[in-house]
Amino acid sequence: MKYLIGNLKMNLSYLESQNYLNELQSLNKIKNFKNVIIGAALSFDAMSLSLQYNKRNFLFGVQNIFYKEKGAYTGEVSFRSAVELNIDFVLIGHSERRKLFNETDQLINLKIKQIEKTSIIPILCIGEDQENCSDKVFEDIIKNQILKALEDVDVYNRLIISYEPTYCIGNGKIPQNYHIEKAISVIKKITNNQVPVLYGGSVSQKNIEKLLEIKDLDGFLVGGAALDAQGFLEMGSIIEKNN
Ligand code: 13P
């Protein structure tokens, strides 16, 4: 079984999200994958649409969440709403959150600890910034991100990790398969082989077949190429065919 998760980022308005989900639901019904779990991470404005898709054939996620129950945190959204709205998964620590909104490993850890108390799946995003750094540097970066994010956390039964080297996001560039394989082996080792590992960064219909050759890869987190529901599910067909 492999995951194919779309991160729609801030690309769709509320109504566009609704149209997208309608299309996703009906096309996914036709596809009827046996070996692919489809998911979509929506922006907060579309979060309540989850209630309209009670009987859905995809995982409904959001791209961020705050760790406090309630209080004076202007502009934040409480995990309590995610629970009430039956959200299936939350992206935590995406590189855009780290870079543009200064999210630290410590904040990411607090968010994961809070999610741990719910039945929501946290998808922890990690990855190095520098291209061509030595194996040791790159391994230390991702190990460090994982150890800090998971300090005092015990969600291995639900946690998913997405490896996303930031220099491959949104630009059509992908690392060599052996580099992703190396990242997967580091992540699996540090999490006692208990956590599914996804790859994210410029995944498309053109390169997904080659990426499927990667050993121990459990799926993909897709940005730009997920925005067209039909094209997104075509990637699901390629995964299904190659399984
Ligand atoms: P792109 O697929 O657009 O490179 O985005 C990847 C990503 O950020 C997934 O979280």
From TrEMBL:
Enzyme class: isomerase
Pfam family, one: TIM
Subcellular locations according to the entry: Cytoplasm
GO BP field: gluconeogenesis; glyceraldehyde-3-phosphate biosynthetic process; glycerol catabolic process; glycolytic process
InterPro entries: Aldolase_TIM, TIM_sf, Triosephosphate_isomerase
Pathway assigned to this chain's UniProt record: Carbohydrate degradation; glycolysis; D-glyceraldehyde 3-phosphate from glycerone phosphate: step 1/1; Carbohydrate biosynthesis; gluconeogenesis
Reaction catalysed by this enzyme: D-glyceraldehyde 3-phosphate = dihydroxyacetone phosphate
Spans through the membrane: none
SUPFAM superfamilies with a match to the protein in the record: Triosephosphate isomerase (TIM) (SSF51351)
GO molecular function: triose-phosphate isomerase activity
Gene Ontology CC: one annotated term: cytosol
EC numbers, comma separated: 5.3.1.1
Keyword Lipid metabolism on entry: no
Family from the record: Belongs to the triosephosphate isomerase family.
PANTHER family: TRIOSEPHOSPHATE ISOMERASE
Protein name (record): Triosephosphate isomerase
Organism for this UniProt entry: Metamycoplasma hominis (strain ATCC 23114 / DSM 25592 / NBRC 14850 / NCTC 10111 / PG21) (Mycoplasma hominis)
